[in-house]
Recover the amino acids of this structure.
């Protein structure tokens, strides 16, 4: 994990029909950096995060992730990133622990139920392990999304509106996650929330 | 959260382990919601009862029985499958879980996981419907081994064909109509082969090497290999 990861975004453009959403966005971040992406609603923050994650193809430009000197192939990038976003949903018909079990197993992370329960306790979901996610509040779902993004200890963490629906305890969890990620990887936060932007060392404003 | 990064070890996942995780997750979800099972079984049971009451075993001439029973059996199985197998991908789209799945597993593993799930549903459908059909229609089979091999191999082909079409239509509107429209030409050759194979097994024509079973196996291999190559293109934007 300590290879010295870096991310390079080069000349990203994104068109939707006739609308130019992202126009030549470029930046680089390296291990230990926290970058905030800000901008008005509809300025393309979430789209940029999805392009970095490989979920959306850019109209032009490219995203390169490096492990040391080596470029990580695009199809392998998902192994190296965790993402929290409003558009990402978890499996409502499964319980919180079952969701965690699935994400561990599908990502090749050893799964231990006791560890999962301990982690759920830490994110304030203790006592709700047997509840199905459809019965979780939006804040509880957001906490579970954060856990889901971290189970494989990704060197690149993409947080799109990470504090949405969270109470003060939940916000503290986000703060701790960002602080911890600073020691072991790259964090990119898309938000207009001052508190979340303040976590960052650098800011990119897509509205400018 | 200091202790929150509690997982200190990671092991590289294989395509098969990812596929199995997806298969188990889908089975667990289906067990709780029963969307696909209900759709498939309701269609299958209703059509089987309608066919057996309206035609039964007495209204078909003895000479026509091997062929017509094969036709009716595969009409029931194929259209029952079409009524529910698209759910495997459509439910991911409707629940908004497509992205999290794209981020978690490689495309081939997603395809294989969904294929295993659809094959499980089809296996359960065949286990219920085929014996019931044989009893209710008085379907006499001279070569039970050949018949079983035909039903199993054509079932596998049906699963492989419908899984890749389900992936293609998941993000489209008017999914139901598209699923049937796209599946039908893809499944027609398999259906014809399956009907012919069942007729041969019923009559007892022991052609060397069971040619229809071999064609169905070739169909499965071609369909799965093609799907594994094509699926990443469908899965990624």
């Amino acid at each position: 994990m300590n290879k010295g990861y870096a991310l390079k975004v080069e000349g990203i453009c994104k068109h939707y029909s006739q609308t130019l959403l992202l126009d030549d966005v470029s930046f680089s971040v390296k291990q230990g950096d926290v970058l905030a992406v800000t901008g008005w609603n509809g300025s393309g923050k979430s789209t940029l995060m999805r392009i970095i994650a490989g979920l959306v193809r850019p109209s032009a430009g490219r995203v390169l992730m490096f492990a040391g000197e080596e470029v990580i192939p695009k199809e392998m990038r998902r192994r190296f990133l965790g993402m929290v976003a409003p558009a990402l949903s978890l499996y409502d018909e499964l319980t919180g622990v079952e969701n965690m079990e699935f994400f561990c197993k599908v990502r090749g992370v050893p799964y231990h139920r006791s560890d999962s329960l301990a982690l759920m306790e830490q994110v304030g979901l203790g006592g709700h392990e047997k509840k199905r996610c459809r019965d979780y509040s939006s804040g509880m779902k957001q906490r579970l999304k954060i856990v889901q993004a971290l189970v494989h200890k990704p060197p690149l963490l993409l947080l799109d509106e990470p504090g949405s629906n969270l109470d003060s305890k939940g916000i503290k969890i986000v703060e701790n996650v960002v602080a911890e990620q600073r020691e072991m990887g790259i964090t990119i936060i898309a938000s207009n929330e001052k508190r979340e932007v303040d976590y960052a060392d650098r800011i990119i404003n897509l509205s400018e | 959260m200091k202790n929150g990064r509690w997982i200190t070890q990671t092991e590289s996942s294989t395509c098969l382990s990812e596929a199995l995780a997806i298969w188990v997750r889908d089975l667990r979800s289906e067990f709780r919601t029963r969307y696909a099972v209900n759709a498939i079984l309701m269609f299958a049971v209703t059509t089987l009862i309608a066919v057996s009451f309206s035609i039964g075993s007495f209204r078909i001439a003895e000479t026509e029985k091997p062929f017509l029973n094969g036709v009716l059996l595969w009409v029931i199985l194929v259209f029952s499958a079409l009524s529910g197998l698209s759910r495997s991908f459509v439910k991911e789209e409707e629940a908004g879980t497509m992205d999290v799945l794209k981020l978690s597993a490689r495309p081939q593993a997603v395809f294989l996981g969904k294929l295993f799930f659809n094959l499980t549903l089809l296996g359960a459908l065949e286990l219920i419907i085929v014996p019931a059909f044989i009893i209710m229609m008085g379907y006499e089979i001279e070569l039970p081994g050949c018949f079983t091999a035909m039903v199993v191999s054509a079932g596998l082909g049906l699963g492989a064909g419908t899984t890749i079409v389900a992936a293609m239509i998941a993000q489209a509107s008017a999914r139901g109509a598209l699923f049937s429209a796209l599946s039908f030409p893809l499944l027609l050759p398999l259906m014809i082969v399956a009907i012919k194979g069942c007729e041969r097994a019923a009559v007892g024509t022991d052609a060397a090497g069971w040619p229809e079973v071999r064609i169905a196996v070739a169909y499965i291999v071609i369909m799965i290999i093609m799907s594994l190559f094509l699926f990443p293109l469908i899965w990624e934007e």
In short: The mean pLDDT of chain A is 91. The longest helix of chain A spans residues 168-184. Chain A is about 30% helix and 30% strand.
